[in-house]
């Protein structure tokens, strides 16, 4: 095993030191279910290193991760890709900057915009029908947006997105760099890419990328990594990570990052998971009424299955899978359900999913395909994100929201956690209809700005 942090902390835990420091469990077996984890759960003391100063075995583990992702540098994060997105925007754009956002960005981007007082502009991905999901961004749209506003310093795009769609990062990076803007990639869902033969965003030309190791690797919840191409000062990145992160980063999470990366390098099990997803997509397309998302620009381990063309919604399919078959999906929406697949599903999880979908396919009725989703009317900014999100607000039921009111908090169906409206945007009658029709099961209230 090539796990410098795990080895260092395991050796320290075996020294039987009297630990008069945090955490309060002192590495002892006081919570039986956590048995082997507690001895490794240290704090910044002798020989354990310090995340924010980049020393010791933590740094060695970060260097191993950087090597694996073919990135000049890597910083561990214990606040998820949320912390990664905040840190990237702080380091690459800075307070008061103009930033171009993929409209399909996670809500943490809107939170960063408020904290850093960023002025957002947006590019909208094309919709993939009949799935009704966000697809590819057009590099020409990014080019146009950057030409219109030469003061934009950074562009943030999501790739892969929740449904597994990968953006053309080399083309987008070329456009950004031609305009002198940095490209930041939210690759929260793509930490496993090198294990399935795909490049990391840094290899494809991005300046920074954040990966949620807890989403698709074996790492503990919240553990993530920030990859850097070296075009942004490493000290500024650490400063940002500590600004938006806890002052007591979890060593258990950091060890899990070290172990999860090493597990990716041990064998070809992620490749096997990708092959199993490929086989399941073919099976569903041929033998069921459900419609798997397929294509070359997808995460090979993500399974998106649409109910479009049947009399069921994606939410209904996901709920039935759970209630009748004990199969829990990652998320669902009106037309789709999404499963995250890793080698840990290669036991019988995937067989259970396939059998359940085969059974349910016999129960659903085929219908005409739904009409393409009406595009969301492009929102008009009325206030800065900062003033709207950090200012006074009152929460109203959708039926009481009047056109002309200003959105105060991101209006975000969760998952996928992508805001339909950003703070500071004016709410129109079309938005209210859109939310009522498309987000009926997740959003019934909106926070509106109160001057
Ligand atoms: C696309 C995307 N980016 C960022 C995040 C935030 O990641 P984390 O939960 O690791 O903070 C999420 C969370 O679901 C996400 O889906």
TrEMBL record:
Gene3D superfamilies: Molybdopterin biosynthesis moea protein, domain 2 (3.90.105.10), Type I PLP-dependent aspartate aminotransferase-like (Major domain) (3.40.640.10)
Domain of life of the organism encoding this protein: Bacteria
Domain Orn/Lys/Arg decarboxylase C-terminal: residue ranges: 375-431
GO MF, one annotated term: carboxy-lyase activity
UniProt keyword annotations, A-Z: Decarboxylase, Lyase, Pyridoxal phosphate
Coiled-coil stretches: none
Annotated Orn/Lys/Arg decarboxylases family 1 pyridoxal-P attachment site domain residues: 3-278
InterPro entries listed in its UniProt record: Orn/Lys/Arg_deCO2ase_major_dom (IPR000310), Orn_Lys_Arg_decarboxylase-I (IPR052357), Prn/Lys/Arg_de-COase_C (IPR008286), PyrdxlP-dep_Trfase (IPR015424), PyrdxlP-dep_Trfase_major (IPR015421)
Cofactor(s) the record lists: pyridoxal 5'-phosphate
PANTHER family tied to this protein: ARGININE DECARBOXYLASE
Family statement: Belongs to the Orn/Lys/Arg decarboxylase class-I family.
The protein's name in its UniProt record: Orn/Lys/Arg decarboxylases family 1 pyridoxal-P attachment site domain-containing protein
């Amino acid at each position: 095993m090539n796990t410098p942090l795990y080895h260092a902390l395991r050796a320290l835990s075996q020294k039987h030191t009297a630990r008069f420091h945090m955490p309060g469990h002192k590495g002892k077996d006081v919570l039986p279910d956590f048995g082997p984890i507690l001895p490794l759960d240290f704090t910044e003391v002798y020989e354990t290193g310090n995340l924010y100063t980049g020393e010791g075995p933590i740094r060695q583990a970060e260097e191993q991760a950087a090597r694996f992702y073919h990135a000049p540098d890597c910083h561990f994060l214990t606040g998820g890709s949320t912390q990664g997105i905040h840190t990237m925007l702080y380091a690459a754009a800075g307070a008061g900057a103009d930033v171009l956002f993929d409209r399909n960005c996670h809500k943490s981007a809107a939170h960063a915009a408020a904290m850093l007082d960023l002025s957002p502009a947006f590019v909208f991905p094309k919709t993939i029908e009949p799935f009704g999901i966000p697809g590819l961004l057009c590099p020409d749209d990014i080019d146009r947006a950057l030409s219109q506003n030469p003061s934009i310093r950074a562009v943030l795009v999501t790739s892969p997105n929740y449904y597994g769609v990968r953006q053309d990062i080399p083309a987008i990076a070329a456009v950004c760099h031609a305009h002198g803007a940095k490209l930041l990639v939210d690759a929260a869902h793509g930490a496993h890419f090198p294990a399935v033969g795909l490049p990391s965003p840094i290899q494809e030309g991005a300046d920074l990328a954040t990966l949620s190791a807890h989403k698709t690797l074996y790492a503990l919840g919240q553990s993530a990594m920030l990859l850097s191409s070296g075009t942004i000062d490493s000290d500024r990145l650490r400063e940002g990570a500590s600004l938006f992160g806890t002052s007591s980063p979890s060593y258990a999470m950091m060890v899990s990052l070290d172990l999860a990366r090493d597990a990716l390098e041990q064998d070809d099990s992620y490749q096997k998971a990708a092959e199993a997803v490929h086989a399941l997509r073919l099976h569903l397309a041929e033998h069921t009424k459900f419609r798997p998302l397929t294509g070359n620009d997808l995460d090979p381990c993500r399974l998106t299955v649409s109910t479009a063309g049947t009399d069921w919604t994606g939410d209904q399919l996901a709920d039935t899978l759970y209630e009748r078959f004990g199969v829990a999906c990652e998320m669902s929406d009106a037309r789709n359900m999404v499963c995250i697949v890793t080698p840990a599903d290669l036991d019988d999880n995937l067989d259970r999913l396939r059998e359940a979908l085969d059974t349910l396919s016999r129960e659903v009725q085929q219908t005409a395909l739904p009409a393409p989703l009406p595009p969301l009317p492009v929102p008009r900014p009325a206030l800065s994100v900062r003033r709207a999100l950090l200012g006074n607000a009152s929460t109203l039921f959708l039926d009481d929201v009047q056109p002309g009111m200003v959105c105060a908090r991101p209006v975000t169906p969760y998952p996928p956690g992508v805001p339909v409206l950003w703070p500071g945007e004016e709410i129109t009658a079309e938005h209210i209809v859109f939310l009522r029709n498309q987000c009926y099961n997740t959003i019934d209230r909106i926070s509106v700005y109160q001057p």
